[in-house]
Amino acid sequence: MKIRFIVLTALLGVSATASSQTLSPDGYGKIQFGQRLDQVEHKLGQRATPRPADPACSMVGFKRYPQVRFMVENGVITRADAKGVVRNSAGITARMSAKVALRHAPAMRSELHKYDKNGQYLVLPQGEDKALIFEASQGKIKRMRAGVKPAVEYVETCG
Known about the structure:
By secondary structure, this protein is α+β, with helices and mostly antiparallel strands. The chain has one domain (21-153). The protein is 21% helix and 34% strand. The protein is built from three helices and nine strands. The termini are far apart.
């Protein structure tokens, strides 16, 4: 009986942690954009990998968040890029088409994709300095990113 309780408690803890991992223009999980990398590493109790190669701009990851990579500029986390579409503050899912996503979030605007003639960026600004951006190709949402400007607006990543 004790073992069942322990297993159930552990599973509920994992579920609660997973549900709190929401990508928003403010951050992802326990990481807030604008925080220093060393502060985040201390908070999470783990080091980012790989170690930032270029102090000006590098991409790092954390074992705790395997679906997301983080942009670090001059020691500060400024952006997160998801592998695909993860839980997000706009409620957009991978099953949504770009058209449905635009209807779902009326404040979102569509912009031409820089490299994909059949693609578009779906940009959901938050105030003057933050955004959640989805990339779509042939009407299907493929990936997403969030963060502070100008980092979130960069088409390419760094490092």
